[in-house]
Amino acid sequence: MQGDPRDPVLFSFLFVPVVMEEGNRGWSFWICEGEFDLGSLCTQRSLIDLINLLFLVVYFFSLVIAAFRIGYSINRSRNLYWGNIIASVCTAAIGIAYVGVGVWTLYSAEWMTCFIRGLVWVVLSVSLNLQPTKWVAALVRLWLASFLVLISAYNLEIVVNSYSLSVLETISWLMSFLLALYSFTLDRNNLLHLNLASDGLSEPLLSTQSAKQTGFSKAGSFSFVTFSWINPLLRLGNSKPLDLNDIPPVDTEDGALQACQTFLREWDLQGEEKARSSSNLVTYVLAKCYMKELLLTGLYTLLRTLSFGASPILLYSFVSYSYRKEREINMGILLIGFLVVMKLVESLSQRHWFFGSRRLGMRMRSALMAAVFQKQLKLSSQGRRNHSTGEIVNYIAVDAYRLGEFPFWLHLAWSQPLQLILAIVLLFWSVGLGALPGLVPLVICGILNVPFAKMLQHYQSKFMFAQDERQRATSEVLNNMKIIKLQSWEEQFRKAIETLRDAEMKWLGQTQIKKAYGSALYWMAPTFVSAVIFAGTAVMGTAPLDASVIFTILATLRVISEPMRMLPEVLSVMIQAKVSLDRVGMFLLEDEFNEEDVKRIPLQDSDLSVEVCNGIFNWVPCTSLPTLDNINLCINRGEKVAICGPVGAGKSSLLYAILGEIPRISGSVHVSGSIAYVAQTSWIQSGTIRDNILFGKPMNMARYKEVIKSCALDKDIETFVHEDLMEIGQRGLNMSGGQKQRIQLARAVYNDADTYLLDDPFSAVDAHTAAILFHDCVMTALEKKTVILVTHQVEFLTKADKILVMENGQVTQAGTYEELLKSGTAFEQLVNAHKSSITILDSPNQEKQSETQEVFQDELRPPVKQNNEGEISAKGFSEVQLTEDERREIGDLGLKPYKDYFNVSRGSLLLGLIVCAQSSFVILQTLGTYWLAASVQMHHFAAGVVVGVYVITSATSCLLAYIRSLLAAHLGLKASKAFFSGFMDSVFKAPMLFFDSTPTGRILTRASSDMSILDFDIPYALAFVLSGSIEIAASIIVMVTVTWQVLIVAVPAIIIILRIQRYYLASARELVRINGTTKAPVMNYAAESLLGVITIRAYAMKERFIKNNLQLIDTDATLFFHTIAALEWVLLRVEVLQIFIIVTSSILLVFVGKGVVTPGFLGLCLSYALTLSSAQVFATRFYSNLETYIISVERIKQFMHIPPEPAAVLTGRRPPPSWPSEGRIDLENLKVKYRPTAPFVLKGITCTFTAGKKVGVVGRTGSGKTTLLSTLFRLIEPADGRILIDNLDISTIGLKDLRTKLSIIPQEATLFRGSVRSNLDPLGLYTDSAIWEALEKCQLKSTISSLPALLDSPVSDDGENWSAGQRQLFCLGRVLLRKNRILVLDEATASIDSATDAILQRVIRKEFSSCTVITIAHRVPTVTDSDMVMVLSFGELVEYDKPSNLMENKNSAFSNLVAEYWSNYE
Description:
About 60% of the residues lie in helices and about 10% in strands. By secondary structure, it is of the alpha/beta class. About 50% of the residues are buried.
């Protein structure tokens, strides 16, 4: 009966695809005529149904198992979204439709098929809402993904073979796409609501941290898919420049805390694996932690790969459709629908692959950054020696940071070979065996890729090594710039850095030029492969060389070209990632600080504070000679114990032994209660004075004020503009040595510990301040506390309950002051050496000793407010803090950064050549494909001619592509050299004030990460933006020549795209700028914490530092997260607009009249249309990247125009070579201020330092002594007055001519990484015999002679493997070698004992007998043998006379200072 729904024709339209194999309908194999033929569409569809049935059965049994699990109900409680309901209803409706069709066709062969499919869809509907366990949820995801992939492949094959799909099959196919997408979106939403408790974490580190909610965490399915959740931030960024407070924080699951805890929990479980090998261990742990996220992003990658790989099939279908005599409109609409679905799936999957993988990389990065930081707080002393501060910072800044992109490249590593395989299969599908010859050049290109990748990796590893060396040297120079300027070593150190940079540039050049070869290979491979395939097809006759075949081959080769280009880079990146992961793994496996070396017992359980029994300790356990030997020590609660001895005796090591920092070989150490520690070298954090004193403790204002007063900080703080909220620069650069030491002491006192370990805390302060600190702080504020004091100040030993005398790592004497004096030997020698340094004073001075006690009491009365150097250093900077927030450009700077880039690099000509080369390349590529489109319509051209012309044009274009890449590489190299040279020139010529007010991290980030962007990213991003833009223009022009009507959509779409890009860039630019200021604090904090790790551990503050570090990491991650999200936001919208253009073009091609557009030009138009969206994304991505990369140009340019200090050499004003021949120094009305708006620091000083005389400069802490010397060396220029040396105004000559004629031993001894020889003679001017002679004079010869490498013995970073006293002796050795007429000793003997001090004073008197010696010292005896003494107070000259004359006047300031010193001794 006509119109019967069961009629086979009508039924096939509704349900069964019209298969051209007679009888091949049905579900089971026996219905398919009992044949199992994978080539049969019937067999393929039956296999899909069978797989679905298997999934259904497994799902059913999973539900049964879940139902019977203890404590688990099958009715899982969870909120149902409207999306669940709609998806379930639609899915059930399809299932019911299949069952209905099955009932209607009950007596036909298809009824069972319909029932099976209906059951599958109904169960799928149920599975969306019933997933009681995570394993069931994973099963459902896998089921949906498998179903989508299989049914898509099957339906595409039907469409390609020009068969038709039924309405129900079409609907179910589209529904499978939506289901898969919705299911994974829902899975992601469920993940977002997991809390920390679900991870089984006990005792969360940041218990006070509340769960953080952002737009991302609350985003619905549509908002998540389209990245609309970031709209509020972009809207805000378009209305005003964003700042850090505008950026919402990352979610808890993306935070560093959860990432670190997850990683460390899994890391700790790998105990046995750690013992076997560190290789790949970090990779394995990360994989276990993030397997689910890796699989999810892997699915996105798979969908993108399949949809992108399917584009040649769709192109073939369109061209084949155009060849039909009778074009079915339904078929055309179906093809357009497939095109839309394919491009949407490609776009969405790619966007979420990119975003998801980088988000996952951010988590991995945060986990490793936090883990490395926590590890550095646990490192043993040996571990710290194995990894320098710079190396550990590199683990965070380079190795861990590199993981931000690692998951993306990991998925590329498997998806690109898969894409290559799919493309090869498509080639054989389109031309059969004609594709076989094309495999030969393809294999050759693949083989060439292997050595090319290895070569690239070799060059990159060499480059990375050279970069590390250069960054280490740069860091060292920046940290020690003051001593470099004082010694006038800038030229030498700059040459050293430039030499390292030249080595770096050598490997950078090799890498960039080899990448140009790779670019040529990328474009040449498809050209030659296509030519060989065309020729093979023509010779073998396996397929007609019509438009459908030709453009399918070209489209397939585009699919091939991506793996050909990416695989070498993928291999290189994966090798780099493995190296980084293994480096981090080796560091995480380092030995840790052994807390068992010291047994901590509660305070109430013992009357002893410290007990050491038979202790043997050694910094290097494997050596035979211990650092400390046979230590037996009992210190009762409340005792004051002093430790004294010569330099290198082991005094500081004994404190380290009590702290557990030095490995214990044998014996035992018991400590009761808490510990506070004051290091010999002061460790101050960047931040306010208050923050440094509180050190994480809550504020108790009454106690705080008492501590400030007892540590003699009250006068300093009162004079600061911001008082105790005064910002301290990095490493306390804007604080004097005495101020830093007192802040450190105040930190210990406020901590209210039970036992105090003080390592020579008075060495950096004057005698008066030392007396206040000892009496008010040690003896009063800490009266009831146990204090162990290492000191060289013998005058304080009389007040100690017990004194330990150390020599050669042993306690040689122990007892009270009187007991030790009676026993004689070592202690008596120390006291006698101290007394002998005093006897230089005249007899009238001795008479004054009886009056010193009264004078001392007067000095201890509440002092009046002093305008000391603390005030100078604060008020010198007006009302702003010294360390200001990092400046960043705001808003759209237009073309200015680009103009700066080309002006500095002088690369305008190269830019023009790049544009010409790229334009010529695109024109030739277009002409080649245009020739193919035209020639296939003209049958009078032989196949050889067609292929030959195409090969010639394409080969020529490849040559131009190579030239373009080569030009881009040379432009980048030229810019890198110019910017680095200008940057380093500016930094080395910057005045000292710049380094005092600029954290080293800010300079280092410009010298490292910003410079790396200039080296690698900007030149190629610039070339890619140009090439992408030209390619888009060419594509649209080709499409317009075939169907001009596309302009109606293309022009508005392009205008909208440009507006969207501008809208996006307003926020993205600021996000990247802010991000440029959030990375440096992470690195600075890590470096700063490592320097103070002993202090942090002593105060048990590890958790607080870990918490602060996590917050810094999260701040940095927040910017990264929103930056990548904003990028995917704009790319998705750009792709959608380009899809409109593509769809418009395809609609015009489908509905245009037959013969209006030939198949050849239809194929040409569509081949360009299908690449349009990818070209637009390519251009948009690199344009967005370029806009963010160019910010590095802004940042480096900021430091290329630092106001310089005066010239090193003034031609025509150079002093005579013999200058200064006498060494006379005249100060004439000398006035100094730090800034024009600041008050005067030195207030009109006038005096003369007679040639060849010894002048002592004294004054209380902060009186302006160091400022005077800074002015002498012109670190600060006088505001008024002048300094004459041998009647020559020093401001009229160059800085180098001045500083090379002056010698100085600075307040803080500085050593550089290298050897003993390189530290004594950095310029290589002296012989070994001269160096040994200097070492002998400065008491270091015996120590260095005992070392195996002698003068080549190593010196570690900052000279950490030498004691503070030994470092000071090295500085003495330097000036003994130089032998200038003028010598400045800036508190040079503060860290050595009195006996050594006396010896050195004799050496200085002998070696510099005819020189002018200016000495600043806290110990009065150091300057009492001077010819003249200058007394400074409040920046004014109070007294200047012979010390004997000053001592005769009992009211003189100098006499009072001496009286204070003697009163302390008595």
